[in-house]
Amino acid sequence: SKPSACLDKDHKKPPIPKRDEAPPIFHEGDIKNFIALNKLNVLRKPALRPARKSVDTKKGDSFFLEFSGLVPKFCMKKEFGETPKYLVQRRRDLDYSEEMYHKSIPGKKFIKLSDEERNNLLEGLRANWEALNQKYATLPLLIDTKLLQKRKTELERKLDLLEHDIYFLDRNEENDIYILPE
């Protein structure tokens, strides 16, 4: 049960070979013929074409044609004139969501809002706006607490929503407005 190999005093590793006795080690870089490799790389590369330039003065000032807009660059692409893929996908998604929406309410159809209902709705919205505006006007001038700040921003938000709805109904007086029945 004793580890005899480790405790053996006569046990030693083999000696390191001397420099002249060791086998030669060849690195990959030692046997490469860089001149031949460079020749092959040059032969395999496509020929370099000079950049197309146009000289515009007698002194020889020139500019690149590619960036000047004189060369038709984008109209030569095969995708030119086609609707981009992201717009096609967006249209498909919108059509799908509209189809799902119409499937979700199969029996319900939109009904036209009559002029009388529209006027009643407008009067109700204006009355609500007046009540909220009265509350807003009674707020103190110095608003220093979080509760007052929150109340003020909430009243402003509600007033903005009511103003938007009133503006929408006023603006579309001659247009028909359709609603979902309840």
UniProtKB/TrEMBL annotation:
InterPro entries reported for this sequence: Enkurin_dom, Enkurin_domain-protein
Keyword Coiled coil: yes
Subcellular location: Cell projection, Cilium; Cytoplasm, Cytoskeleton
Residue segments, region Disordered: 1-23
Domain Enkurin: 85-177
Molecular function via GO: calmodulin binding
Key words, A-Z: Cell projection, Coiled coil, Cytoplasm, Cytoskeleton
PANTHER family associated with the record: ENKURIN (PTHR21490:SF0), ENKURIN-RELATED (PTHR21490)
Name of protein: Enkurin
Organism: Nephila pilipes
